[in-house]
Q: What sequence folds into this?
């Protein structure tokens, strides 16, 4: 199976909001609630910021929120801060033994 | 403090073998499912393998099936990835990650380069 589709880049000024999409199919994103999002700063390991579509792990700021509509999941970062500049990857369970990451989106804070 | 500390990466020739290790501390390792995820240079993340708490369920991505073996030693709080028949396209940073259906903790990553 192919990776989930994300826009290569997104940007916003400090204080603004940015939304990243993650498009799959009814066999993955659209079929399960197991969509998660990961933030990866350059040269670092990924960090879980959203799980089960819209749940936030302890310690993750509420500026990060997730949602899903049909076969597309979205991550919104509100009140952008300089430290939010990173790569973001979505992930979805795709049934049986299939697990898919998104292609990744580089967020730039202008 | 919960930690996953990786070791074992390096340079290997095509067709060669390498074993990666991931040592867990600060949490009950035997109660947690584990995974390996890799990231080729400048590329995105790729899930490659999963092992359940008691090793009864194991999954592999098609890209590594038949060449890589995931296993764990709960007595040693350690996860392993035995990689055989390595190819240039296996060059990546390899991460161990805790969880099933989402990955809430990650190792620091270990680079693997397959080149002659």
A:
């Amino acid at each position: 199976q192919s990776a989930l589709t994300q826009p290569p880049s997104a940007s916003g000024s400090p204080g603004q909001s940015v939304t990243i999409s993650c498009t799959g199919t009814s066999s993955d994103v659209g079929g399960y609630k197991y969509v998660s999002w990961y933030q990866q700063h350059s040269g670092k390991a990924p960090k879980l910021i959203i799980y089960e579509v819209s749940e936030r792990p302890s310690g993750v700021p509420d500026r990060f929120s997730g949602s899903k509509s049909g076969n597309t999941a979205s991550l919104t970062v509100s009140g952008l801060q300089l430290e939010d500049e990173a790569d973001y990857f979505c992930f979805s369970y795709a049934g049986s033994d299939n697990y898919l990451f998104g292609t990744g989106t580089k967020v730039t804070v202008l | 403090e919960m930690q996953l500390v990786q070791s074992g990466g390096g340079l290997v020739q095509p067709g060669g073998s390498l074993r990666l290790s991931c040592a867990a501390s600060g949490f009950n390792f035997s109660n947690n499912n584990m995974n390996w995820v890799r990231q080729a240079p400048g590329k995105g993340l790729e899930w490659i393998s999963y092992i359940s708490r008691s090793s009864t369920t194991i999954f592999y991505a098609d890209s590594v099936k038949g060449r890589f073996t995931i296993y764990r030693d709960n007595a040693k709080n350690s996860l392993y990835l035995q990689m055989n028949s390595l190819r240039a396209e296996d060059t990546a940073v390899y991460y161990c990650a805790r969880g099933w259906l989402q990955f809430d903790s990650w190792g620091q990553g270990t680079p693997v380069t397959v080149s002659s």
